[in-house]
User: Fold this.
Amino acid sequence: MDIVSQLKSTNLAGGVVSSLIVMLIMILLAIYIGIRAHFQDPLKKPKGMLLVAEIGVTFFENFAEGLLGKRFRMFGGYIMAIAVYLFLAFIFGLTGLPAPMTTLSVPLSLGLSTFILIHATAVKYNKIRYFKRYVEPLPFFLPINLISMWAPLLSLTLRLFGNALSGFVIMNIVYYGLQNLSAMVFASIDSAWNEVFFAPFIAWILHLYFDLFSGFIQTTVFISLTAIYVGQEAPEEYLE
Amino acid sequence: MTAEAMKFLAIAITMLAVMPSAIGEGFVVSHAVDGIARNPDVYSKLRTTMILGCSLVETTAIYALLIAILLIFVAK
Assistant:
């Protein structure tokens, strides 16, 4: 395999490789659902995976419409892609491979894509007036405005990274403690196997919180913030 | 006072930022409960908004925790 040897030689961080695996899973899912949708008879009820995908697309388009207005239904696609990727990336830590979100470059790239989307929307709808915001209310506010421009990027990135990293560190501490406790209680067993008795029965409750619940909440927060930031830049909608 | 002790003092001061965040979260929940008591029909809507608001308030505490972790593992 040429790709595998190349991946090994590039010396990527573990989280980035996990992120690439999550993306591969998403691409395969998208191809599968696309083929199913292409050959689906539109007069029949969709079944299985296709039904789930249709419910998801409807949900996220309504979500975008509710927060951004009717003209911005197309942002539903971006929001759905981000949401599915984030949730898969958060629960990917359950497989035992390095969790993608604990490497700073992964949440940074997510935050950067939302950041670019915000400013692209602003430039698209405000044209040249976009640059006026940097000299408001007075021209000498320019340096302050240039610094505060980066605040959304920083907060989006560090929210994801801090949440995932704190969960990761706490889980590691709990695993370490349970391992030592088990070794102390079952000291009569004279082998390295006396370390494994407590962790499988206690740690899963914390995984339920730190991976599933926290991942779900952070996904919701991230997509809501994305929609709100983008909605701020878009002009008011005419009432029809 | 040695440099090591100063480092742990810095971590302790950083984690003080968690206190106001917890108070804020208490405000969020108390007002949500007030709203539910006044109008029990909005329970399901209010719960979602409350969890969202809680996690937004929690962000400050997460920043503090992140800085504390960085101080523990990165600072010399």
